[in-house]
Design goal:
Elements (H helix, E strand, L loop, with lengths): L22 H24 L3 H7 L6 H6 L3 H5 L5 H10 L5
Length: 96
């Protein structure tokens, strides 16, 4: 016969296990990585002299706004060759 009210049995902790969704952690890591790439790009562009920035069509005060418009692919690119980076480091200062 059908029992409409079966006796209550406590569930074991192992039978109730469900893997947690990692979507929140993944999104957080992706956001942090994108922010790190953004900061890295801003620092690199700020290290360039004004003439080079003008050649790129960027005003020094617009660097954060320009970088905010970059796609993930653009953020992951190296903006200049290692020769230019080495030249900037050798001068020991940022261009006026």
């Amino acid at each position: 016969m059908f029992n409409a009210n079966p006796p209550h049995r406590p569930r074991s902790h192992t039978s109730d296990y469900r893997p947690r969704k990692t979507g929140g952690i993944r999104r957080w890591l992706q956001t942090e990585f994108r922010n790190w790439e953004r900061r890295k790009m801003i620092e690199t562009l700020r290290g360039m002299d004004d003439r080079l920035l003008r050649d790129l069509g960027i005003d020094r005060s617009d660097i954060p706004r320009v970088v905010d418009g970059f796609t993930d692919r653009e953020l992951s690119m190296r903006p200049v060759s290692s020769d230019v980076e080495f030249d900037v480091k050798c001068r020991g200062h940022r261009a006026a």
